[in-house]
Amino acid sequence: MPWRCRLRQARPSPKSGAHVEAGQVLVELDCEPLRKEIDVRAASLAAADAVYERVVNGPRPEEIAIGEAGVGVALARAEEARATLDRAHGLEVGVSITLAQLLVAERDSRVADAVLVDARKKLALLKVGSRFEDIAEAKARRDSAAAFLDEGKADLDQCSVRAPAAGTIKVLVTLGQLVSTYAPTTLVQLTPDAK
């Protein structure tokens, strides 16, 4: 554990001279900051999992419907711009229409055609779904968040000292005593039961 902790008694706390069973918690370190960090890591994992699911599932049907509606609007505008251009070509420049008006009609038709192409390509992308790379990235982020959470849980497991075997213990520290990995301290001594 890379941080300092205060000792707290296990519940129920065995006293010096008490008999304990294998696996029984003898003392616990107060690792409240680590517990809060684990909550944050769990929330990060939940968020990464949600992003992964969204990427794997791809666009919703409603998003595809919006894309189809966008194509419909772009198609109507392109048809209107083409009809305006056809009318402009039927007029004589300098008499019924100015050159500037004809150029504007030609530009508007080209822009409307480009917008239609853009809308169709965006719809095609929606229908194809998520890219392989995006799915792989989301999965890697989810897996990383899960590993980070597991690491925190493993650190939290180190906040409890358990009896490796049945026997009699002698407690060598007091409640509230500061313990640190930088100054190793023997917390308890265990005399195993005779076999």
Provide the structure class. Answer: alpha+beta
Assembly state: single chain
Q: By CATH's scheme, which homologous superfamily of the domain at 1-31 and 159-195 applies?
A: RNA polymerase II/Efflux pump adaptor protein, barrel-sandwich hybrid domain
The fraction of residues in strands falls at 5-15%
CATH architecture of the domain at 1-31 and 159-195: Beta Barrel
User: What count of helical segments does DSSP give?
Assistant: 4
* Helicity range: 55-70%
Supply database-style keywords:
195 residues; OB fold (Dihydrolipoamide Acetyltransferase, E2P); 4-stranded antiparallel sheet; 14% strand; rod-shaped; alpha+beta
Question: Outline of this structure?
Answer:
The chain is an alpha+beta fold. It has helices at residues 32-57, 61-89, 99-128, 132-157, and strands at 5-9, 19-20, 25-30, 160-162, 167-171, 178-179, 188-192.
